[in-house]
Amino acid sequence: MQGDPLRTGRLGSGRPDPVAEFLSSMAADRWIAEADVLVDIAHLLMLERREILDSASARTLMEALLTLRSEGLPEEIFDDCYEDVHAGIEAYLIGRAGAEIGGRLHIGRSRNDEVATCIRMRLRHELLDRMAAILELRRVLIERAGEATETIMPGFTHLQHAQPTTLAHHLLAYEEAFGRDFERFGECFARVNRSPLGAAAFASTGYPIDRDFTAAALGFDGLAVNTMDAVAARDFALEAMNACSLLMSTVSRICEELVVWSSAFVRFVELDDAYCSTSSIMPQKKNPDTAEIMRAKAATVTGACMAAYTCMKGLPMSYNRDLQELTPHLGRAVGETGAALELLAGMIASARFDAERMREESAKGYTTATEVADMMVREFDLAFRTAHAIVGRAVRKGTLDLETLEEAAGEMASLSLKERGLTEDRIKSALDPEYGVSVRTAPGGPAPAATKKSIAERSRRLDADEVWVAEASERIGRALSQLVADAEEFIK
Ligand code: ARG
């Protein structure tokens, strides 16, 4: 096996294993290895086209790279005697083609622009994948909302029964939040998909390289222009991790609700057995472990994000080796987010909501008290604050019937509701949760008419978002297939 090709000149070659291991990013570099081969192929084509490298050497190198591409990278490349996968691949090329040819691929570039390019390529792929998973989750939420526009349930503030709403309204709240996550991933994608290649160490190179060529060949939408910024910046990675962290905090909230809702106190939902575990001692137990682990994964993702932020702050221009330590945090954040998203849609799709239990709770805790106050304002010309005080006093007395409200009105405002025409029947209808929901027709509100409209609008947006992801993936896929086809054509 080849030794590390980077350590033959300036440095003495011997060093203790623990030092080599400590410095190596090899374990984490598997995440970018496939991208690295494509980066090498694009760089090599460019060198040959610009006549920076002779065609015969380029052909030999290209044959080796295409073999790596088609057969995968052999384990020897990942030996942690190399600092990283870039050195591992270079050693492999030198082993295969000899130092005279193998040592020519690195003309006009540095591992600094190379690694930044690889990370961006891997990350954009991860982002598109997460976006597709968010779409799937949103589709499930919209579908389940469609079945539940008339499913009355209590809505909560402070986890206290607050006002009646519907399950559809509740699910659509999450769908809208995940819609914003989708937007954030898309905006982040635009900043990620810029090519740093050609920045070399930071000051670019004196060779007549063609940065636009390699950028287009690798499916980038343009350049990370300033060559110092190109190698030094990782804010694109922080932004992606931030987007993951925000998404996971919403995932964690819905999981928290699934945990609470599936408890015997609440019984609003039963999760499918597939997502649950049991106890090793208590044979009756069905625990919502998947939701619990997801809740905890939000902490893992936010922790990785914080580690990356802390790693970046205070780094002077341009490249610093600290940046190597950031990449695994990025991989962890996007990876854990992906794993959670993959399961969440299925867990919600297969959940059995208990409409009867939700209906039963929907009128508890005076959830319709606001509607009773509103009715008094609308029909008996009271100031809202007066009506609020009267109803509040009646609740304190223990019930919302005509006699109690009349008493409260006397105490709070020295007036008679009966004289103004309030009847027991009118109170009953205002106390009905279905009625309270049905009048809340404002855009985005819980009335069935409003949620049906939301469902239609959100479905249209979902379709458009789906097209966006498909087109972005296709653009990149097309560029990379073309790159490999051009490389194959070149060695013919
Ligand atoms: N493994 C390194 C990283 O992940 C690649 C760049 C190394 N550059 C250097 N100047 N030592 O950042």
The residue fraction in helices comes out at: 55-70%
Instruction: Look at the helices and sheets and give the structural class.
Output: mainly alpha
* C-alpha termini separation: 29 Å
**Radius of gyration over alpha carbons?**
31 Å
Lateral strand order in the biggest sheet: 1-2
List low-pLDDT spans: none
Along the chain, the helix and strand elements come as HHHHHHHEEHHHHEHHEHHHHHHHH
Report the biggest beta sheet as strand number plus sense, adding barrel if it closes. Answer: 2 strands, antiparallel
- Average pLDDT metric: 96
Tell me what portion of residues adopts beta-strand conformation: under 5%
Hetero groups in this structure are: arginine
Identify the overall geometry.
elongated
Tally of helical segments: 21
**How many E strands?**
4
What does this structure look like?
With 492 residues, the protein is mainly alpha-helical. The protein is 66% helix and 3% strand. It contains 21 helices and four strands. A two-stranded antiparallel sheet has the order 1-2. It has a two-stranded antiparallel ribbon with strand order 3-4. The longest helix has 44 residues, at 448-491. The radius of gyration is 31 Å and the shape is elongated. The structure holds arginine. The site of arginine has 10 residues, from α7 and α13.
